[in-house]
């Protein structure tokens, strides 16, 4: 059975072409089928048994089967994908709802084919099987997910072919004998190029007390191996939203479309806020990372919707699109995680740069996280057993991701605490920021535990999909609200203009960076955002730069205690005329040997403070030809 699990991987891809695989394994001794206890689920036969000959519209070797079953045409969307992408991206073995077609040749006597979660009273299997009469007689076995059925036989090394057949009862119509003696199999003998074949075309309906996973296997105990050409269509009803979907996938397409529309709105709002921030020179790197994460989330959901829409149409889908969507989804998550760690360390909030050691640690961590994500996708594609219903995190790579998530939270918490200790005035931003994303950091591990142990397998796929998208929506929505450029937003983190980061974090004497490249503490406070439609009155008190000057500098002036609150230092713009007169106005005083004419007397204008308008200007930038005047 160790080799058998590679076989359904080709089936689950839903490829229109045939696939051939040879197997080797032990043979089971011949024995009659033994009955077992009656199970609560039944595979119902067609209403009328019909004749043991050909069904209407069925031809040996044709692509049409019972119920008008036709092999779908190759979707046009495949022609639009780059051929290199199709070659490089691995195809996972876990496409579930289905059109299945292939050619099996094996020396084993019991082989798993595929699985599907059928909806009670609506699930149906339409099939067409064809094999040489010399290989007679083979059986199609229908197991369901009761502990006494499929879990009891799959990968059970102590059970032979006979024991695996004994857990099901023919009275429940769980056995389809592919012979002309079994009328409901729809088999007939046909000849082709001197070889006699058994061609069987029919169908089954499924009834149970709830949605169940059904597993389809092929057996011939004590025979000389298995050989079968097969074509199966597994459906749930006739609605576009359910027909080709496994019952555990119901609602995924609708959920993805809904979240796609919501994330498009979030992305457009982030672009609008980014436009406003750019106009105020507050569009920092971390906000650009948020916009990139939201954009990748939109692209990921768009590709998921295209994949599921195509899948709902033909029952095959394009697995390359699904892989691409997963890669974009993971990229969005990684960018957002890196942004949170950078903000926790104070980047663009309390400092303009990250130290060299911090950059190295971040690079190593994010590289490790990325490689683990890639390993998870590869493990899911290559090593997940299609005979079992597994969750993404049920793997060593999944457990590694959970561990890295916990480590990231520890790092994030330490960084936030250090930032708050050095910059307590940033509490209005960091306290709600830390509280909100503490929930986010623990949501992924908790979701993995709940999915592995608390959600039934027949409903896990759709529930986990909704929870995962909800977690991403929570993360992006909270950040969008906390960083909105509004006068009512007291949590806004950015207070240093992008053009002033280099000046604020410039190296000190000797080339060293004081306070770990931190911004001055006094530049932080509540910033009043003014609408674009209202003039910025703080600019009325700034003197425009002369045309002959090209330098820029930052001036800081302490305001009197009667104007500024106690314990707070505020910077304000100073008129250029208020600066002390240069020595060039009194050349003789500057140079006693001066023999030129004495300039006329020019009275000094007393230095006055600019009127206070209630709008604090933390940075007033003007040009100056020399060094800044003393404060």
TrEMBL record:
PANTHER family: INTIMAL THICKNESS RECEPTOR-RELATED (PTHR23252), TRANSMEMBRANE PROTEIN 145 (PTHR23252:SF24). The keyword Transmembrane helix applies. Keywords: Glycoprotein, Membrane, Transmembrane, Transmembrane helix. Its main location: membrane. The chain crosses the membrane at residues 257-277, 289-311, 323-342, 362-379, 399-417, 429-451. GO terms for cellular component: membrane. It is found in: Membrane. It is a multi-pass membrane protein. This is Transmembrane protein 145. Residues 40-59 have a biased composition (Low complexity). Residues 100-230 form the GPR180-like N-terminal domain. Residues 259-479 form the GPR180/TMEM145 transmembrane domain. Residues 1-73, 573-601 are annotated as: Disordered. The keyword Heme does not apply.
């Amino acid at each position: 059975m160790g080799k058998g699990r590679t076989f359904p991987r080709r089936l689950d891809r839903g490829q229109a072409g045939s696939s051939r695989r040879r197997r080797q394994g032990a043979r089971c001794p011949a024995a009659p089928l033994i009955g077992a206890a009656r199970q609560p689920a039944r595979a119902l036969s067609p209403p009328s048994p019909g004749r043991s000959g050909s069904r209407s519209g069925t031809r040996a070797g044709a692509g049409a089967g019972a119920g008008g079953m036709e092999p779908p045409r190759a979707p046009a969307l495949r022609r639009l994908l780059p051929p290199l992408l199709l070659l490089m991206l691995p195809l996972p073995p876990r496409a579930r709802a289905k059109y299945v077609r292939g050619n099996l040749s094996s020396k084993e006597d019991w082989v798993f084919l595929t699985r599907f979660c059928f909806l009670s009273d609506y699930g149906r299997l339409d099939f067409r099987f064809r094999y040489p009469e010399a290989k007679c007689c083979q059986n199609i076995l229908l197991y369901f997910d009761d502990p006494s059925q499929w879990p009891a036989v799959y990968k059970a090394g102590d059970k032979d072919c006979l024991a695996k057949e004994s857990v099901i009862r023919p009275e429940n119509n769980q056995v389809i004998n592919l012979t002309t003696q079994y009328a409901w199999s729809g088999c007939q003998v046909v000849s082709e190029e001197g070889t006699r074949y058994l061609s069987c075309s029919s169908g089954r309906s499924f009834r149970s007390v709830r949605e169940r996973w059904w597993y389809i296997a092929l057996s011939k105990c004590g025979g000389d191996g298995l050989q079968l050409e097969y074509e199966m269509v597994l459906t749930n009803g006739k609605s576009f939203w359910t027909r080709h979907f496994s019952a555990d996938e119901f609602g995924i397409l609708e959920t993805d479309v809904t979240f796609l529309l919501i994330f498009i709105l979030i992305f457009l709002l982030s672009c609008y806020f980014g436009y406003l921030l750019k106009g105020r020179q507050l569009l920092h790197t971390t906000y650009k990372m948020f916009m990139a994460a939201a954009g990748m989330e939109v692209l990921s959901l768009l590709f998921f919707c295209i994949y599921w829409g195509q899948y709902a149409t033909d029952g095959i889908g394009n697995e390359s699109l699904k892989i691409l969507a997963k890669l974009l989804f993971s990229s969005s998550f990684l960018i957002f995680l890196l942004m949170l760690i950078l903000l926790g360390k104070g980047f663009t909030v309390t400092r303009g740069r990250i130290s060299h050691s911090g950059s190295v640690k971040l690079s190593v961590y994010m590289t490790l996280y990325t490689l683990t994500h890639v390993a998870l996708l590869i493990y899911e594609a290559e090593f997940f057993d299609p005979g079992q219903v597994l969750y993404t995190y049920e793997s060593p790579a999944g457990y590694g991701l959970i561990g890295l998530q916990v480590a990231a939270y520890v790092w994030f918490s330490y960084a936030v605490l250090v930032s708050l200790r050095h910059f307590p005035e940033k509490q209005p931003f960091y306290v709600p920021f830390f509280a909100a994303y503490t929930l986010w950091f623990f949501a992924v591990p908790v979701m993995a535990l709940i999915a592995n142990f608390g959600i039934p397998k027949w409903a896990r796929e759709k529930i986990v999909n909704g929870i995962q998208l909800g977690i991403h929506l929570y993360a992006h929505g909270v950040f969008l609200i906390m960083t909105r450029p509004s006068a009512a937003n007291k949590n806004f983190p950015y207070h240093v203009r992008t053009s002033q980061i280099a000046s604020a974090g410039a190296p000190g004497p000797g080339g060293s960076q004081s306070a770990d490249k931190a911004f001055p503490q006094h530049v932080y406070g509540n910033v009043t955002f003014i609408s674009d439609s209202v003039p910025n009155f703080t600019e009325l008190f700034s003197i425009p730069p002369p045309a002959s000057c090209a330098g820029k500098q930052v001036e800081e002036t302490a305001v009197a205690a009667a104007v500024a609150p106690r314990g707070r230092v505020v910077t304000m713009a100073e008129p250029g005329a208020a600066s002390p007169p240069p020595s060039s106005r009194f050349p003789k005083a500057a140079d006693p040997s001066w023999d030129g004419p004495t300039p006329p007397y020019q009275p000094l204008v007393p230095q006055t403070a600019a009127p206070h308008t209630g709008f604090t200007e933390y940075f007033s930038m003007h040009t100056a030809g020399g060094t800044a005047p003393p404060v």
